[in-house]
Protein 1
Amino acid sequence: MENNKETNRRINKETKKEASMENKNIESKSTEGIKKTDKLLSIKEFSEMIDLEQSVLRYWDEIGIFPPALRNTDNGYRFYSPDQIIFVNFIKVLSSLKISLKVIGSIRRERTPETILRLMEKQENVLDQELKRLQEAYSTIHVLRGTIQQGMNVQDADQISVQPLGSMQITLGPRNKSGEQFDFYREFTRYCKYAKKNRINLNTPIGGYFESMEAFCKKPWAPTHFFSVDPQGKDNRPAGRYLVGYRRGLYGRMEDTAQRLKEHAAQHGLSFSGPVYVVYLLDEISMNDPSQYLSQICVACQPE
C-alpha cells in the first residue's frame, strides 16, 4: 500500500511538472481581469463569436488597445477569454460614435463615469459640426442637381422667352466697386473673401445681381453684387414671370445679351420691373470647356 501511494505521488508530481512546462510556453498579456483558468478561444473562434474580422483583432493587439488573454510564445498564436467580449463592446460602442482608437486606448484603463461623460460631451460637439457639414453638403448637391438639370434642358442658348420661375433663396454679397475700369475677377475674389468670412456656402452656383435692367444694359459685365444660390439665404429672387435669356461663355461675357433682351421686350410689348439675375447653370463643376459654360439671365416683366 505504501509503495502504491508513493508511486501515485510520483506520477502526480511528474504530471504537474509536464503541465507546468506546457504553461511556460503560454505568455499572459494584459487581461482586463481575465483568469488563466477561463476557457480560452482561438482568434478564429473569438472573431466568429464577436462578429469581427481576425485582422481587426490583430491590429488592435498591435497598437496595444486590445491584447489577447494569452499568447503562445512558440508560435505567436493568440487566445481570448469569452468574457473579453465586454471590452470589445466598449471599443465598438465608442468607435461607432466616431471616437478614434487612439482616444479609446488612452482611456481604456482609467475610464470612469466622469471621464466617459466628458468624452461624450466633447464628441457631441464634434458630431454637431459634422451634421452641419453634411447638411450643407446635402443642400449643395440638391442645388447643383437642379441648376445642372436646368442647363441640360436648354436646347437653344439663343432662345428668349417669358417663363414662370419659382422663388430662389440667395445670399447677396456687398456692393461691388463701380467705375469704368470694373475688374470682374478682382470683385469676384473680394466676394469670395467676404463669403468665407461670413460662412456663406461657396460650393453652390454664384451669380451676378444688377439693380435694374438699365444697369445691366449699361454694363452687362459689371454686376452690382455677386450672390450665392443658398437654400438658407436671407435674400431671394421672388417667384413670378420673367423674361429669360441664356448666354454661353466664360464669366462676365454677356456680349449682346442685354440688347437682345431689350429688343424682345419691345417686340412683345413687355416692360421690366426689378433687378436682373444672372445664374451660372453650367460652369467649371460640370463643363470642361469654358466656352460652353451656360448662364441664365432673367428679369421680371409685365405687359405694358
Protein 2
Amino acid sequence: MASINKQSLMAVEARMKDLMGRRTIAAKALCSKYALEQSLNIKKKQGTAQGAGFYWTNRTSLAIQGIRGFTIDEDDSIGFGLSHTMEYGVILELGKGRKYAVLEPTIKEVTPKFMEAVKRVFG
C-alpha cells in the first residue's frame, strides 16, 4: 500500500483550490452574463418608443432606460439582480397590485435556467 506524504497532500489541496477558483470565476462570469442579458431582454420587450410598451406605457422612456443588471458577490454568495434607477421604479414594481412589475417576474422566470447553468459549472 502506497503511503501518502505531506507534499502530495499539499499538491492535491493546491489543485483543488485552483479548480474551485476557476469554477468561482466561471460562476461570477455567468452571473454577469445573466444580469446583462436580462436587463437587455426587458428593454427589448418594452421598447423605447413613446407610448409603446410591453409592461407599461412609456411616457419618457426613462424607466426602461434605467433598468440595470448587476452581480452579487458578498461573502460566500454570488448571484445577479435587476434594479430600477428611476425613483418611481418602486411604484412600477410594487404599486397597482404589482401590475407593472417586471424585475421580480423576470428573475423568477430565468432562475431555473440560471441554476442549471451554475450546476454545470460546478458539476
Protein 3
Amino acid sequence: MATWQLQTAKARLSELLRAVREHGPQVISVRGKEEYLVSLNSGVGLKRGPRTWDELIAPIAGLGDDILLPPRNEVREAETPFDDRKDR
C-alpha cells in the first residue's frame, strides 16, 4: 500500500486512481500523518438516499400508532423540586 502526500494526490488524481485500480488501496497523508484510505468500490453499490418525503417516511409508516396519548384538553402541571411559587 503506497502513501501519497495530499498535495501530490490532488495534483495527480488520475494516477492515484489508476494505482488504486492496479495495485490496491492507497493512503493519503496530511502533514505526515496517514489520514485517508482510497480503495475501489468492490461491487457494494453506494446506497442512494431518499429523494422524496414519501420515500423517507415509507419504512417507518405506522410505527407508534398503538401508543396511547392523553387527551389534549387535560392540563396537568407537574411539581418540580425547583418550583417555589406560592401562588399556585
Protein 4
Amino acid sequence: MDVSALRRPDIYRINTVIDCAPGGAGTLAEFYSKLLGWDYSHPAGGGWAAITAPEGTVYAFQEVDEYAPPVWPWEADKPGQMLHLDFWVAAEDLEPMIAWAESLGARLTPVQYFHSSRTMLDPAGHPFCIDTDAPEPEAAPDENA
C-alpha cells in the first residue's frame, strides 16, 4: 500500500470511556455530572452512561463484568491506574472542591504527595486529582548534610 496517497480523516469528537463494575455506570455518571457541572446526557442503560460538557467533551462510563478497581499508589501484582483525570481549580478553591467531591461520594487517598493538589478516589475507586497552580513549599534542608 502506498501510504503517501493516504489522508488522515478528520476526527470530529474524542470521548473518554471509563470502566466500572456492573451497575456502576449510572453512579459514576451522576458523580462526575455533579462534580463537574456537566449534563447527564445519556442515562444509564445497556451497561453504560455518559455526561457531556457544554463544549461537547464526553465522559462515558462502561460496565465491565470482570472490573477490578485500580490500586493507588501502585502495589505489585495489583491492578494499577491506567489513566487519571486532573481537575484544576484556583488555589483558594482546593479545600472547597475537596469538600464538594467528598459530598458526592469521593474520598481522599491515604497517601498524598503534594500540598498544592489532592489525589482522590471516585465512587468506583478510580484515582483523580484536584490540582492548583500554587507553588509547592521548598523541601526542608537535610539535617544530616
